[in-house]
User: Fold these one by one.
Assistant:
Number 1:
Amino acid sequence: MKNSVENDLFRLGHILECVDKITFLVDSCKTVDDFKSKWIVQDAMLRNFEIEVF
């Protein structure tokens, strides 16, 4: 049981980190056109949406 809770907490921590990164990326873009012109930001944001399932 303890191992299961630890795994869940680890996953939740990972999800929170991804949300923080996405929020940072959204805040760094001033407009939709700004976002569209930055392929690296687009790639980073999509990678943070892909939350792995163990």
Number 2:
Amino acid sequence: MSLRAAALRTALERALDDPVHVLSTERGIRIHAPAPAPADVARWEQVYGALRTADAWGSAYTPMGPEVWALIQDEVTA
């Protein structure tokens, strides 16, 4: 895992106070985790700060609820 991906993982885990999931994909390292509660502005500020360091990021609704995701493309292990 690259230093960028490791730093993003750590920042998201601290912001969310929960472990995140890390996957190696053809496009790079994908990190995803449950999204904070919509009204938790302080937590969202920390999450946005971390997500902005990624090459791509966003959110999605999954069967487990809303999640945030980020992609670091500087390390591809296909």
